[in-house]
Amino acid sequence: MKITILTAGTGSYYCGACMRDNALVKALRALGHDAHLVPMYLPLQLDEERADVETPVFFGGVNVWLQEKYRIFRKLPLWVDRLFNGRGLLRAVAKRSHMTSAKEQGEMTYLMLNFEESHLGKELDKLVEWLERDGKPDVVVLSNALLGGLTRELKRRLGAPVVCTFQGEDSFLDGLPEPWKTRCWDEMRLRTKECDALISPSQFFASLMEERLGVSSEVVPNGIDLEGYVVGSGEGKIGYFARMYHNKGLGLLVDAFIHLRTKLGDKKTKLAVAGTMGGGDEEYVAGLKKRLVEHGLEDEVSWHANVSREEKAAFLESLSVFSVPAIYPEGFGLYLVEAMACGVPVVMPRAAAFTEIVEPAECGILVEPGNAEALANGLRTVLEDSSLRKSMGEKGRIAVEDRYHVGAMARSFEQILRKVVEQ
User: Fold this and answer.
1) Percentage of residues in the chain having pLDDT higher than 90
2) CB 356 within 8 A of CB 350
């Protein structure tokens, strides 16, 4: 099959959805398919080699904004568009994405969902022309439902089925101001029904989207490429690897670490924080560092931003226990699987998709969500029992090898895509 995946780049150095899509394209090629990855909005910034290095960015963030706001930019020649789609410019814009008003984010999100009301026809023409250049795809995959507004036109102009995967759209939409929040949810409800298949990364998120959108979806857990991930022998270190911001629960983990060191008698455990810092995250991290200074623990925490894939693997291998206590309804959590691949036991909230990953694998402890003391107690339980750490770490690695590796994900996708193409 000729498969095209449109992935919505966030500009983040560690975007879980982009990482998944990049690995998926490579794995589908290994299965013999002609698969391609097409970045939307912003260039992909990955910690691994891109599947399609030369593919241009479509619906570039600068072009989309200018064409929607100013009529003249809808008629300018393509060479001008290419200037605004330059990777350097788009990456600079991504770093300042926090400066965009919530109202503008809401309006642009709505127009991408209700595409026929937008003024972005020129951008769609460029995408369709490029997709047809070497023969039309047999199926188009949208990396998240926020791209669902393209479904109708892509099906009409390409004559190909469209499959959409859910990737945490709820937290983004719920953060929009009214009336955009309600209008976007209403429009996404209509657009997802036009897709030929819907895929969720967990049963939790499938149930959540069925409740909020009235649609059913098939569950395909995300998977990772195991190359480079080996079981380590970390001692005395708690690790966090995700975006360094509030919703991922970094502040909660810092509070748990402070409680562990000042209230529970732990005198030696350290905390290591790694991941990406996007626009505006620096101020949040500075506040956490100030809190650590107040307790005399600033030297007990290390910070590692925007690490490479090799550095990420080495970081995970050095840990005794892993935790990203996200405080929003996480649809999957690729970081969790990466830690499991390195044989690191986990302590996670008993919430969202974490329960269905951790409990069957017996790879960690689940604690009360949003409770720093409960998190500290869970971390201490794992830290103080070396045999428990070893057992949980081994079971986590087995679970990844069994059902959370990219090969398993690709085969499940292949079955779904083949079915919609044949129909």
Assistant:
1) 75
2) no
Q: Is 219 exposed, middle or buried (0-12, 13-18, 19+ CB in 10 A)?
A: middle
* pLDDT, tens digit, 9 for 90 and up, residues 211-232: 999 999 999 999 999 999 999 8
Which of these, 194, 140, 161, 166, lies nearest to 20 by C-alpha position? 166
Note the helical H segments in 193-325. 203-213, 250-262, 281-294, 309-317
Determine the Cα–Cα distance for residues 325 and 348; give it in Å rounded to an integer: 6
Structural domains of the chain, ranges and CATH numbers in brackets: 2-225+406-422 (3.40.50.2000), 237-403 (3.40.50.2000)
Q: According to the per-residue pLDDT averaged within each range, which of 32-46, 88-102, 373-387 is highest?
A: 373-387
* Residues across the chain: 423
Residue 218, strand partner residues:
199
Q: Which residues contact 266 (CB under 8 A, 6 or more apart)?
A: 260, 380, 383
Burial zone of 293 (CB within 10 Å; 0-12 exposed, 13-18 middle, 19+ buried): exposed
